[in-house]
Amino acid sequence: MNKKGVSAKEAGDVSLGGKLSVPRLGFGAMRITGEGIFGPPKDRQGALAVLRRAVELGVRFIDTADSYGPDVSEELISEALFPYPKDLVVATKGGWLRPGPNQWTHDASPAHLRKAIEGSLKRLRSDRIDLYQLHVPDLAVPFEDSVQTLAQLQQDGKIRLIGLSNVTKEHIERARKIVPIVSVQNRYSFADREWDYVVDYCEQNAIAFIPWSPLGAGKAVGEILHRIANAHRRTPMQIALAWLLRRSPIMLPIPGTTSIEHLEENVGASSLRLTQTEFEELYGVPHLAV
Asked: Check: CATH 1.10.150.20 for 3-283?
């Protein structure tokens, strides 16, 4: 494959609420932080180079969160890419905290979300977040209160579009009674299809679906995947991404990496087209419980 010709734009576009359109292969910026998604990366210049190369490769959707680092991922994005290309969408999230390596705690309270959006705006050097996502429902806070807060921040002009992450269909339906929801971000891959019904719901309602852990965390690199990869002279990970792109036109995978080589490999999946038989073979792989 000629890496010079690789472009995320070959995957086609997906709409975000009819307001924005981006190529269907984005970049997830969680892993550019330190070990355990905590603190700065070991190779800061390398992280900055990966972000810049992603944009050079046609990526126009970068997903991050204030809890990645915390703060570090957003700071690196602005350092690498500001002033941003006019067509670049930087999406971030709030409502989950990172108190230490490999630790998560909840806080989707209205007070915290208002504080979180101000922090993200400052770190990203932006007047408005293109897409702001509730990172995860907080069992200690009424879900409607969290969503209503985002709706108010949207009315205040600090958020353009609103999305949800780590949610059920019921959450999406409840949120849509308050404010338009343009995206849903859940864990999903050809080998991890717990949220199949949410993907179908999103497709029926023109809501972009952003799968995290889109490569199945390497859990399903088995015989079928290798056979199909060999037939296309591609890597198993490219096949896994191509499967996602074929699964639904509203799919927006966001594979992340700290390596330019792996970034180029991932973006190379944009031009890969699986046959219906290959797609069905992979869909038939037994679901792996996580």
From this structure: no
